[in-house]
Amino acid sequence: QVQLVESGGGLVQPEDSLRLSCAASGRTYSIYAMGWFRQAPGKEREFVAAISWSGGSTDYADSVKGRFTISRDNAKHTVFLQMNSLKPEDTATYYCASSSRPYLVVVVTKEADFDSWGQGTQVTVSS
Q1: Are strands 121-125 and 10-12 parallel, antiparallel or unpaired?
Q2: Burial letters 100-123, b for 16+ CB under 10 A, else e
Q3: Among 10, 13, 11, which residue's Cα sits nearest to residue 85?
Q4: Residue 83's Cα: distance from chain center in Å?
């Protein structure tokens, strides 16, 4: 099994930045692509960003393109989400996810492609 633990959430003002981290443990050798999803109150969970095992391929939701950046450190089994120019509509619980689909350079983005999920970290953007 893979365990994922997110950190870095908090309460910030509009236009502020936050950096989320997600540390993986357990069967880390089975982790390939990793991603971030979010769920706002009363809404379904949605895709935010994903990165391939190699780190060379990334994908983002249109709503965060140009503001968020996903990266990873395979040596530390950690994935990051740098969030800049935050907006109130970014308020949500952010979940880290990992995929065991054995693609080294392909990035996956569908929830069904991810096998393991963290507990989530709350991000609140409010003035």
Answers
A1: parallel
A2: beebeeebbbeeebbebbbebbeb
A3: 13
A4: 10
Tens digit of each residue's pLDDT (9 = 90 or more) over 68-111:
999 999 999 999 999 999 999 999 999 999 999 888 788 889 99
In which band, very low, low, confident or very high, does the pLDDT at 1 lie, cut at 50, 70 and 90?
Answer: very high
CB 53 within 8 A of CB 33: yes
* Higher-pLDDT residue of 48, 30: 48
The single residue listed with the structure tokens 């965060």 is 64
CB atoms within 10 A of CB 92: 22
Q: Give the whole-angstrom CA distance, residue 116 versus residue 89.
A: 26
